[in-house]
Amino acid sequence: MPSALDRFAPATRTWFAESFDGPTPAQEGAWRGVEGDEHVLVVAPTGSGKTLAAFLSAIDRLMHAEVPADEPVPGTRVLYISPLKALAVDVERNLRSPLVGITQAAARRGDSFRDVTVGVRSGDTSQRDRRSLLSRPPDILITTPESLFLMLTSAARDTLRTVDTVIIDEIHAVAGTKRGAHLAVSLERLDALLEAPARRIGLSATVRPHDEVARFLAGSARVSVVAPTATTRLALEVEVPVDDMTKIPAPPRDEGSGARSLAPGEDDQPRGSIWPHVEEAIMHRVLAHRSTIIFVNSRGVSERLTARLNEAYADHLGLTDPDAPPAGRTPAQIMGGSAAARPAAGDDAETVLARAHHGSVSKDQRALIEDDLKSGRLRCVVATSSLELGIDMGAVDLVIQVSSPPSVASGLQRVGRAGHQVGEISQGVTYPTSRPDLLGAAVTTSRMQAGLIERLDIPANPLDILAQHTVAATALESLDVEEWFDTVRRSAPFATLPRSAYDATLDLLSGRYPSDEFAELRPRIVWDRDAGTIEGRPGAQRLAVTSGGTIPDRGMFGVFLAAGAEESGPRKVGELDEEMVYESRINDVFALGATSWRIQEITHDRVNVTPAFGQPARLPFWKGDAIGRPYELGEAIGAFVREASALAPEALAERTAGLGLDRRAADNLGAYLRDQKEATGQVPSDRTLLVERFRDELGDWRVVLHSPFGRRVHAPWALAVGARIVERYGMDGSVVASDDGIVARIPDTETEPPGAELFVFDTDELDTIVTAEVGSSALFASRFRECASRALLLPRRNPGSRAPLWQQRQRSAQLLDVARKYPSFPILLETARECLQDVYDLPALTALSQRLASREVQIAEVTTERASPFAQNLLFGYVAAFLYEGDTPLAERRASALTLDPTLLAELLGRAELRELLDPEVLEHIELELQRLTDDRQVKDVEGVADLLRLLGPLSSDEVRARVQPDLAGEAAGWLTELQGARRAIEVAVAGDIRWAVVEDAGRLRDALGVVVPMGVPDAYLEVVADPLLDLVSRHARTHGPFTSADVASRFGIGVAVADQVLRRLSRDGRLTEGEFRPQATGSEWVDPGVLRRLRSRSLAAARQQVEPVDPLTFARFLPSWQGVGGTVRGPEGVLATIDQLAGVALPASAWESLVLPARVRDYSPAMLDELTSAGEVVWSGAGSLPGNDGWVQLHPADFVLRAAGAQAVDPLDPDSLHATIATALDGGGAFLFRQLIDVLTAQGPGTVDHADVATTLWDLVWSGRISNDTFAPVRTLVGRGGAHRTQRPAPRARLHGRRVRSPRTALQGPPTVSGRWFSLAESADDATSLQLARTESLVGRYGVVTRGSVMAEQTPGGFAAIYRVLRELEQTGSVLRGYYIETLGAAQFAAPATVDRMRAFVLDDERPTDAAAVTLAATDPANPYGAALPWPDRVVDDGGTRHRPARKAGSLVVMHDGHLVLYLERGGKKALVFDDDPARLAAAARSLVTLVRARRMSRLTIETADGRPVGSSPLGDALLEAGFEQTIKGVRLDA
């Protein structure tokens, strides 16, 4: 096959052969593609020679084309467009090599050639050079998208009329942005100048999908895509410099200010910061290589890491004096700005290891830094994304990434800076700074190696770009409206531009909106609608040239010490992003580094502050740093977590090693996933999201949604969640989104915080909620300013300078106030589109919501004692990110809610307005109700007819008759005549029909519809009404279901346009909602919001009725699992979680540690409960005594103490009794050891105090619920072997006493039954309402489905009637759903939203016994549904006159299998009732009893009778003997 080089001239081939070994696959493919007539897209990794591939064919053609000697070059032939000015300069410099080389080769050969000229035009080009380019156009012009726009809008466009080739470099960097959309239209404008469209050559690094970038390059034209398969030339590592990232050793050297500042928010702790270890490792890496680029994700880290590396390098060289005292400056001055990262004047450059490079560094400084790195004078640059694109950085042989890159594409761009030359291997190392960061780095590195970059999406129909180009294109000549529409639509971003949006934009530019309210709304173009032309008005060209472009004007505010402060020296503290300053107020406190600063003054360009040491502060936020994780990368992280968490440690280590993780990284990653799984029971993934609830250090609730899908999905979701919290709870939830989930803060309240239901939305309404919420957000206001600027609505007053930010904000706010009056205002729509599709990823959120609805993705929930490992990362991000919505007062946010035109917005977004939500039968019935056509609403007398006319408006005689009770219909005409005679009703002609109306409507009908009013109407009813037609239409809406504009026009005899105008006015006032509502209808409809609420609520009720209830056995299977029976949790955390679910349940003291807690906590030991009580996290209380040293005991989380209804209150206490004396002593506060209490009692009266009496009295007060103890040891000792549930386990000494050493003087003197500290007990809430709400929410959490039986079994105060009232209110908030979930248990059942689907998973189609283990529970255990939610099965045994029936009594046991009640054992176990004779179930029950005894949860179990007969001769006896029981004279027995 001939080489692609054969097409070039001999001189070109000679130079190439002398310079290179041969063409790369990308070059071969590009040159072959250029031979055809199609546009060409070259997709190849960095270092594949793409730029030379594009230029060489153009250079060869220009140098060797036959041009007559006397014919001057008419203009530019090749246009090279670069997204970066620095890249443009770099390319111009690199072109010298082929130009000079080919020229010399041609000269040596004696070939004829012509000189090829090259020019550069960018924002840095001087006016003199620009004039030169205009008078002598170069053959090759290197420019930027913005400069191309300016040339097309000026006389310079004539130099472009000869262009035949356009090269667009780094096309992937602009294709997915508005800057790319701007460029795409510029290219179409360029083609319109040419005789034939120019050949476009796009150069792109690895990008996906190729077709989308090809579409951006050439619109609908054919494109040849050259994407040679490239072998991976990446050497990637992920390195962690410490063994355990949660227990970081202190560094061998002092942690300087730089190290601490890099870990904001951390106090000086015994463990060290990871930053010194990372810095040390980075420094050694840098010193081992020639040239290194370090990429970080924020400017602050770039500056501080640079400073720290230079300090460490100076230490390494031994150039620092360790005894030198620090300069007397404030921390802010030490870290104040980029100067810290640069050597001061006079510093030895050889002591500088690194320099910082980011957007805040001046252009000249960046150029010097780049040149120093290329020349080898600088070993290292610490950069943000400013160095990602394809600038040739010379011999860079290592790229280090500190923290995971924001995306796979970004990571590949960064690593591609190393080994930039053809054939070299790109070496990259990532240093994660936290365990969550390590997880992201592992997945990103994996996808980088596989080339799985994120999908690129082209912005659709950005109307601000359309407006700007329209003004620019018409500035020099008149355009045909249709031709301009076709030109714009040829570009990929506008390929689907609706004509309505196009016309709306022309309306905006031609002066449709009032310029008297905002001057810049004055017309910019003249639209001759008759001629079909548009033409720029005077000043249009100057406006486009001075205010055009797409890069938003986002500035920084300097932060300075306020005047009068004592500190000398530089006063600059640092910088804040304008968005943060925009949301800040005087006296707000924020943190920079380790210091808090209080804002004293905000001027137009600076923030003056004073120190606020130790004050709680929020962290600064840089808008440019907040790059959201792409949805695809989030999905990949979720999949990795799901797969990795299921692997054994060895398998996980093997897999991660293949991803480039070193041993420490692999170990930390595995530990991170295991720790999360232990904390929450499962890990969030791409298929399971997790809602975690816990209290923070202030006692407030944090509700965390763990989700991997990225901030662009979570941010709009958080808006909807915030709106739901406000709607349901009347409070601001301070909801903040991050890449890893959503955090909501619920202020401390006695009510149960929301769970998974807070995050689950109806898919069909989610986009509506988000659209409404985003309109009132600070983000919307900020983006509106940018969009309005791009649309030339906020032009620069002085083209030579930037308008102050405060002035821009002020003018934008004024424009926004005007625009709000016009829902179809194009820039409002564009701002909404940008927020929802470019900033947020609403389509991805909608898709995720649909997956949640189909249960392809599920949501689990868990309540934890403290933040899980995943949640800790979210909380840190919460502190850093929370500054937007939550700072705005709620009332102002509501007042600024923006109404968008839903129809036009839906057209732009390409999505349906509303889906088919409403039940047809519900819709029909509500319409009959509204029209008083149902039996219960029909009228029966003359007053009823009067009410009909007043409520429904004018009605015909037939319409009135239809609304009268059938047996009285004949009276309708007489009643109407009676009302007419009494002058209470009039007969009028409306829309050609004779109708009856109340006399009060006379003036309204006359003024709105021109109705002729009969004679004799009182003047009072003929007065002028302010807006009569709006009143009539509003009443029509309140009394009808969804209707169209045509329906209103027909009803009132008005034009459809007039009706539509009135309807839209009502919509803007919030009195109507527009959408698609009827299930089978099409087109836009209108409905009253109140009617819509009724339609939705009743439709949901109808859907609820369609749910098939489960059978009682399914609930019996579900309930033990719901309560964690089976030991699914471990450790003290598991004990606390169990107690949280069982809070307030009174159970026999002897059952708690023998049956209840061991059944739920796999590794339960009494020490765990003692640890929690001693630490004050759990409180126990008495609720009545039982025979045999036993009693009813409740366990509570310390902040959730609920006394039981059965507590035996000793009230009133005899003031002279010992009970009153002890209660008074304890009520005074504090906790008393028994000896201390004896001393207090002795001091209060004469005589000695009997210790035994005091002990007895203490227990009387315990059982009455008045007092408690800080350890469970006294209960354990009291019960001993005499409780209802006997156990062989000896009572251990409480851990409280095992930890502390007391002197003999203070040692506890008294019996073990009174050990520990005694204190008075009070409930967490005092008012009855709060207590009932707490009890109700506890019931919902305990049972999943709350039924009357469950409530009555717990003897809840007020019974089910009181709980029902609270459940009904919770239903209104959406916390619970009412339904018929379980057969035979009544209709009044309430379930948490996440419960029902889980319960249905326990449905068994086959009732035959399964292999599942049986469950033995105390009969009083709430996990036993029998005798509570479910009735006991029929079984009464008459044993010699004694009737035995099951009951929830202390000491009794139940054994269940597959939900079936198999056995009931009375106290002591001697008598058994058998409820299921199935041999398999009996065998399973017997095995469960054996397991119970052998686990020493019972000391001995002897069963003598079964159903009143000797057990030995029964099937149960056989099963017990088979399982391990022994035969005795009386029956069967098993000892522990």
TrEMBL record:
Protein origin, superkingdom: Bacteria
UniProt cross-references to Gene3D superfamilies, sorted A to Z: P-loop containing nucleotide triphosphate hydrolases
GO terms for MF: ATP binding; ATP hydrolysis activity; DNA binding; helicase activity
A biological process term (GO) from this entry: DNA repair
UniProt domain Helicase C-terminal: residue ranges: 281-464
Domain Helicase ATP-binding positions: 31-225
Keyword match Hydrolase: yes
Composition bias type Basic residues, residue spans: 1283-1303
Keywords attached to this entry: ATP-binding, DNA damage, DNA repair, DNA-binding, Helicase, Hydrolase, Isomerase, Nucleotide-binding
Cited CDD domains: DEXHc_LHR-like
PANTHER family noted in UniProt: ATP-DEPENDENT HELICASE LHR-RELATED, ATP-DEPENDENT HELICASE LHR-RELATED-RELATED
Protein name: ATP-dependent helicase
Organism (species): Aeromicrobium endophyticum
Taxonomic lineage: Bacteria, Bacillati, Actinomycetota, Actinomycetes, Propionibacteriales
